[in-house]
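Course exercise 7: structure representation. Students receive a sequence record and must write out the corresponding structure in C-alpha coordinate form. The form below is the worked example handed out in class, using VOC family protein (120 residues). Read each field label carefully; the graders check that inputs and outputs are placed in the correct fields and that the protein name is recorded exactly as given.

STUDENT ID: A-19
EXERCISE PROTEIN: VOC family protein
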Amino acid sequence: MSTAPTNGIAGLAAVAVDCSDPPALAAFWQRLLGGLAEDDAHGDTMLTGGLVDVIFMRVLEPKTGKNRLHLDLRAADADAAVAFAIEAGATKADDVYKGPRWQVMRDPEGNEFCILPPRS
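STUDENT ANSWER:
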Protein backbone atom coordinates (compact mmCIF):
# COMPACT_ATOMS: atom_id res chain seq x y z
CA MET A 1 0.00 0.00 0.00
CA SER A 2 1.40 3.39 -0.96
CA THR A 3 0.61 6.68 0.65
CA ALA A 4 0.66 10.17 -0.82
CA PRO A 5 3.65 12.25 0.15
CA THR A 6 3.06 15.20 2.46
CA ASN A 7 5.63 17.39 0.71
CA GLY A 8 3.29 19.12 -1.76
CA ILE A 9 4.12 16.84 -4.72
CA ALA A 10 0.89 15.70 -6.40
CA GLY A 11 2.29 13.17 -8.86
CA LEU A 12 4.47 12.52 -11.89
CA ALA A 13 3.43 14.79 -14.76
CA ALA A 14 5.68 13.36 -17.45
CA VAL A 15 9.13 12.03 -18.24
CA ALA A 16 11.20 14.62 -20.14
CA VAL A 17 13.62 13.53 -22.87
CA ASP A 18 16.13 15.90 -24.46
CA CYS A 19 16.58 15.19 -28.17
CA SER A 20 17.45 16.74 -31.52
CA ASP A 21 14.23 15.77 -33.38
CA PRO A 22 11.22 15.70 -31.01
CA PRO A 23 8.56 14.67 -33.58
CA ALA A 24 10.66 11.78 -34.91
CA LEU A 25 11.64 10.49 -31.48
CA ALA A 26 8.06 10.84 -30.23
CA ALA A 27 6.88 8.75 -33.20
CA PHE A 28 9.30 5.95 -32.20
CA TRP A 29 8.16 6.01 -28.56
CA GLN A 30 4.50 6.23 -29.60
CA ARG A 31 4.92 2.82 -31.26
CA LEU A 32 6.20 1.37 -27.97
CA LEU A 33 4.05 3.22 -25.42
CA GLY A 34 0.90 4.17 -27.37
CA GLY A 35 -0.77 7.52 -26.89
CA LEU A 36 -1.17 10.68 -28.92
CA ALA A 37 1.77 12.85 -30.02
CA GLU A 38 1.24 16.60 -30.36
CA ASP A 39 3.79 19.26 -31.29
CA ASP A 40 3.75 22.56 -29.44
CA ALA A 41 4.70 26.09 -30.48
CA HIS A 42 8.19 25.71 -28.94
CA GLY A 43 9.24 22.78 -31.17
CA ASP A 44 8.68 20.16 -28.49
CA THR A 45 6.42 17.12 -28.78
CA MET A 46 4.20 15.75 -26.00
CA LEU A 47 3.16 12.10 -25.98
CA THR A 48 0.11 11.61 -23.78
CA GLY A 49 -2.42 8.91 -23.03
CA GLY A 50 -0.10 5.92 -23.40
CA LEU A 51 1.67 3.93 -20.69
CA VAL A 52 3.37 7.13 -19.46
CA ASP A 53 3.33 10.75 -20.62
CA VAL A 54 6.61 11.84 -22.20
CA ILE A 55 7.70 15.27 -23.42
CA PHE A 56 10.42 15.34 -26.06
CA MET A 57 12.32 18.62 -25.81
CA ARG A 58 14.58 19.95 -28.54
CA VAL A 59 18.17 20.62 -27.51
CA LEU A 60 21.22 21.55 -29.57
CA GLU A 61 23.87 19.51 -27.78
CA PRO A 62 24.27 15.83 -28.69
CA LYS A 63 23.86 13.01 -26.19
CA THR A 64 27.13 12.01 -24.57
CA GLY A 65 27.59 9.03 -22.28
CA LYS A 66 25.11 6.66 -20.67
CA ASN A 67 21.76 8.01 -19.46
CA ARG A 68 21.53 8.52 -15.70
CA LEU A 69 17.76 7.91 -15.87
CA HIS A 70 15.96 5.56 -18.26
CA LEU A 71 12.67 3.74 -18.75
CA ASP A 72 12.23 0.05 -17.88
CA LEU A 73 9.44 -1.50 -19.95
CA ARG A 74 7.79 -4.69 -18.65
CA ALA A 75 7.10 -7.12 -21.47
CA ALA A 76 4.41 -9.79 -21.71
CA ASP A 77 6.80 -11.57 -24.12
CA ALA A 78 10.37 -10.22 -23.88
CA ASP A 79 11.62 -11.72 -27.17
CA ALA A 80 8.65 -10.32 -29.08
CA ALA A 81 9.04 -6.92 -27.41
CA VAL A 82 12.74 -6.74 -28.29
CA ALA A 83 11.99 -7.74 -31.89
CA PHE A 84 9.25 -5.11 -32.11
CA ALA A 85 11.50 -2.40 -30.66
CA ILE A 86 14.22 -3.26 -33.20
CA GLU A 87 11.70 -3.16 -36.04
CA ALA A 88 10.57 0.27 -34.78
CA GLY A 89 14.15 1.61 -34.87
CA ALA A 90 15.82 0.59 -31.58
CA THR A 91 19.15 -1.18 -31.30
CA LYS A 92 20.50 -3.53 -28.66
CA ALA A 93 22.94 -1.95 -26.19
CA ASP A 94 24.89 -5.05 -25.21
CA ASP A 95 27.88 -2.81 -24.41
CA VAL A 96 25.90 -1.48 -21.42
CA TYR A 97 24.65 -4.86 -20.16
CA LYS A 98 24.36 -8.30 -21.74
CA GLY A 99 22.82 -10.90 -19.51
CA PRO A 100 19.75 -12.94 -18.71
CA ARG A 101 17.84 -10.44 -16.53
CA TRP A 102 16.77 -7.84 -19.15
CA GLN A 103 17.71 -6.39 -22.54
CA VAL A 104 19.19 -2.91 -22.69
CA MET A 105 18.16 -1.06 -25.85
CA ARG A 106 18.83 2.34 -27.44
CA ASP A 107 16.17 4.47 -29.11
CA PRO A 108 16.97 6.14 -32.47
CA GLU A 109 18.80 9.01 -30.70
CA GLY A 110 20.83 6.70 -28.46
CA ASN A 111 18.82 6.98 -25.23
CA GLU A 112 18.96 3.74 -23.28
CA PHE A 113 15.89 1.84 -22.09
CA CYS A 114 15.36 -1.70 -20.86
CA ILE A 115 12.90 -4.41 -21.79
CA LEU A 116 12.22 -6.64 -18.79
CA PRO A 117 10.66 -10.11 -18.94
CA PRO A 118 7.23 -10.81 -17.45
CA ARG A 119 7.03 -10.98 -13.69
CA SER A 120 7.26 -14.57 -12.48
